[in-house]
Amino acid sequence: MTTKQCELYDRECINCGECDRCDLDPNKKCDSCGKCIEPDKNYKIIKITKIIK
């Protein structure tokens, strides 16, 4: 049985949900709006136009 690694800490995932919280509003689940990412040239953006199964 393989265990999932925690996204934030050096440990196994304990399903705490902290990685799903919004950085700007901890009472909100992250919806990937991108408002927490400051405009910077170090970020790359891609546009997904098609998903192939």
Please characterize this protein's 3D structure:
By secondary structure, this protein is largely without helices or strands. It is 0% helix and 0% strand. The chain has no helix or strand. The protein is extended, with a radius of gyration of 15 Å.
Topology:
Elements: no helix or strand
The class by helix and strand makeup works out as little secondary structure
Number of helices: 0
Strand content: under 5%
Mean residue pLDDT: 84
Report the C-alpha radius of gyration, rounded: 15 Å
* Main sheet record: none
Distance between the termini: 27 Å
Report the principal-axis shape: extended
Overall strand count:
0
Query: Uncertain runs with pLDDT below 50, 5 residues or more?
Result: none
Helix proportion: under 10%
Main attributes of the structure:
single chain; 53 residues; little secondary structure; 0% helix; extended
Can you summarize this structure?
With 53 residues, the protein is largely without helices or strands.
